[in-house]
Amino acid sequence: MQLSDLHAHNPYEKLNLKAHPADVRGWGSDAPIFAELIARTAPRLIIEVGSWKGASAIHMADTCTQLGLDARIVCVDTWLGAVEFWDDQADEERYQSLRLRHGYPQVYYTFLANVVRAGHQDTIIPFPTTSLIGASWLAKRGVQADLVYLDASHDYDDVLADCHAYWPLVRPGGVLFGDDRNTFIEVERAVQDFCRPMALTIHGDERYWWVTK
Description:
Layout: H1 32-41, E1 45-49, H2 55-66, E2 72-77, H3 107-118, E3 124-128, H4 131-140, E4 145-150, H5 156-166, E5 170-178, H6 185-195, E6 203-204, E7 209-212
Parallel strand pairs: 1-2, 1-4, 2-3, 4-5
Antiparallel strand pairs: 5-7, 6-7
Helix pairs in contact: 1-2, 4-5, 5-6
């Protein structure tokens, strides 16, 4: 999959970097699980659902480069923030990082600028839409990914829906994985309820989970 499959005009082109200061803060974006699963699957295509400022996508792109893999990473996100991002206006990491302008988040441009500064604009493909619309579009085009990372909403219904929507996009032998099982009890419950009917074995640690197709 290429950038032009989604974008008639390159979203990185003529981006004013000075208007979007460097800010790649994330949560656990350089955890060993990323390198482990990339080495295991040798991906040509990675789908990330929930990208925020791009820290994990950039880390995965760096890892692919280090391993000599010619991969593409599709980042599906609305860049509007999860529920918890709107809870506390004094929260610098969440609410203030939305960078509201006339009440509308501008963090998408922070993401683009971070990708450009990292030199991965040929690898990372932004897809600014909801997780379910993104999954539907990719499915209609027969896209199959080697690795799918879920880190969007932490609500039970949303996580369960994302698991069901993106599982068909994982190629046989590929991996679906996610974050925050120890932070949000609803994430763990949704993953368990998704895997149980198919008798899928859940691997991982306290924070990350992954299953093989």
